[in-house]
Amino acid sequence: MKKGTVFIGLALAGSLALTGCTGGSGGSGGSASGGLSGEPATGGTLRVLQNADFSHLDPAQGFDGGVNNFYRLIYRTLTTQGAGEGAEGTEIVPDLATELGTPNEDNTVWTYTLKDDVFFEDGTPITSKDVKFGVERSLDPSISIGSPYAKIVLDIPEGYEGYYLSGPLDSIETPDDRTIVFHLNQPYADFDAVVGQAPFTPFPADADVTTTSIDQQPIASGPYRVTEYQRGSTLVLERNEHWDPETDEVRTAAPDSFEWTFGLDAATIDERMIAGQGEDANAIAGSVAPASIARIQTPEIQSRTVAGLQGCTTYMGLNTTKPGMDNVLVRQAINVAMDKEAVKDATGGSQLADIATTIMPPTVVGREEFDLYGTEDQTGDPEKAKELLAEAGYPDGFEFTLDIRNQPKMQAQAEAVQQSLAKAGITVNFNLIDTSTYYEVIGTLSQQHDAAITGWCPDWPTGATFLPPLFEGSQIFEKGNSNIAQLNDPAINERMAEIRLMTDVDEANAAWGALDEQIMELAPQVPLLYEKTVMVVGDNIAGAFSHAGFSGGIDYVSVGLKSAE
To answer: What is the homologous superfamily of the domain 53-259 according to CATH?
Structure first.
């Protein structure tokens, strides 16, 4: 691919989707594009009401749309996503780097130059050595549970276990304080997007940074620093006086401070946001609960509603290494038996979700439309499922354990799954996991059960960031594992390797789209929904829109207050 603009999201076309890249277009709200327009004033405190705490403050460990959105307030990387609705917000742009990277002829060596006048929160200049150290520490197996791309594409010797255990990584060179050179193990045309991932956050190479210290007390390179944190309760950010807006074309950073309140149940959050009284006029929150949809249809509430696609796929991953689940006929039976219409209704109906039939959502380039296990009205076919189970050797039915989040909407989805599969003689038992630790638990092989309801969003909108993390055998890790199906199919692995070597981007995108259907023939998951997000904000909020790169959430670096008084 030629050097230039890289996009990680798409302007939405038609229907909407779930947890990762969402576009602002197509939503209802304060503007035609689904956002609340108006430049935020400088100053004031913006409040965020949230059910669960962030997974990790350490960028080596967090890896979901919500926490990645938060990271941009306190951290910077060589590149980042833009700020804006639709494609404007999903363009990869320089951040700490002066420009996008310079690759060699075969895209295996990439060079970046850091800007002048970029500093940590204590005023220490950020150098190339700090970027190198940030990557090296992220490869420590005890914390390497976040974005996997550094592990996948960097030229890392076998047995390397991060800076603390193995020392410096020779494949990252720092010839001077402003230049950093990455050597890859394969051609990778999208490396500009990789260095925008959270594990590429710099930290002082000569400071007392340990494997656990950043999770407890981050070292800011962005416009804000953490001044108070009580896990599960509150998080306060105040301005980082050493952040220079002249070096940052992405972050508006209008509020003087941010204050999160965690541990609120969904009904309480919706009640407070709909009422919008007192300090809640200065607040934002996540998507409303299904039960509140009918209450936000008045003109006054619609005028402060932001909506958009989450840009992801909600799915039930099937662990292909577990007894029974290792039989493709059993997995196909589960797909056939699934009443997706019931799952959609449990999620809040058509205003909050569309039914999924493919692994990749409609926002991904090259995605093909197909439905291998479609049933009439998408309500499932119990009798066909029973036939498949009998053929697999389970004439009396099948039983498995499903990991789910301890959160009302997710439990409602799980109950719909349980009830629909019961009609086919499939018994589903629940294993409830706390929301804040859910991804970490299901991503740990020793703790994962037979299946899990989760979601996946593209880090940029191609199959390269969707199918390999979920289904490539080489990407099965003891911890931080996203291939929860634990699929390790030689033909699938070989095809992924072939696609990566394609230099024609259009050809590669089409190949990923075709591979989606090839994988679904093995039925390692049940695509359930392409979810949407609908958020009510306070009356004093400005610059709020659904960002396509962060699960459709409101872009933290752009939002602020109409009046800072």
So the answer is: Periplasmic binding protein-like II (3.40.190.10)
Tokens of 455: 């979601």
Query: What residues does each domain of the chain span?
Result: 53-259, 313-531
> pTM to 2 decimals?
0.78
Nearest C-alpha neighbor of 40 from the set 556, 551, 534, 548: 556
pLDDT digits (tens, 9 = 90+) for 122-142: 999 999 999 999 999 999 999
Could you give the 3-state DSSP secondary structure of residue 79?
A: strand
Using CA atoms of 496, 501, 504, 506 in order, give the dihedral in degrees to the nearest 10.
10
Q: Tell me which architecture the domain covering 313-531 has in CATH.
A: Roll (3.10)
E strand spans, 231-346: 234-239, 257-261, 283-285, 305-309, 313-318
Residue ranges of the alpha helices (H) in 365-489? 382-392, 408-422, 438-442, 467-471
pLDDT class for 17, splitting at 50, 70, 90? very low
DSSP 237-255: EEE-TT--GGG-SS----S
**125 vs 139: CA distance, rounded Å:** 24
Q: Do the domains spanning 53-259 and 313-531 agree at the CATH topology level? A: no
CA distances from 174 to 132, 138, 206, 327, 442 (A): 8, 18, 15, 50, 37
